[in-house]
Amino acid sequence: MKWKDKRDVLLLSTKHSVRYQNVRKRNKVISKPKIVIDYNGAKGAVDMSDQMAAYTTPLRKSIKWYKKYAINLLLNTAVVNALVLYQSVIGKKIQMADFRLELLKSFCSQQDVPIARPRRMIHKLQQKEGQARTSRRACVNCYKINAATYGRKLG
């Protein structure tokens, strides 16, 4: 769909049809496409997310642009999403800087959890008749060891 506002606006949607809706803008009524009205209503959330992420950013001018982009995408967006989830679950408003500080404290105060070592698997090859090439369909690593030790015949 092509719509002219101050300049041409090209829009493509699988959800909307080419319907117009009357909207009051200052003292006059303007006819706008429904897709533009929905877009303008939803873009505020993205702007708010970017604004919240920009208040306390870890980015510095000396970082190359692609690193800034990756840090912004990974860290800031994740922290903003975590803050929104935290506020919706807890129901308490908290500032972004305070939330970042609490987040860092919780990461630093976590105890080191020892990683359990997996037990060694016991490989037992079954004795089979015939040549090893035709009878083998067991563990490949065990076969290599047994073939090196006992030769190609397993019987």
From TrEMBL:
Coiled coil: none
Domain of life: Eukaryota
Entries under InterPro entries matching the protein: PGBD
UniProt cross-references to Pfam families, sorted A to Z: DDE_Tnp_1_7
Stretches assigned to the PiggyBac transposable element-derived protein domain: 2-82
Membrane-spanning residues: 69-86
UniProt entry keywords in alphabetical sequence: Membrane, Transmembrane, Transmembrane helix
PANTHER family per the UniProt record, alphabetical: PIGGYBAC TRANSPOSABLE ELEMENT-DERIVED PROTEIN 4
Name by which UniProt lists this protein: (apollo) hypothetical protein
Source species of the chain: Parnassius apollo (Apollo butterfly)
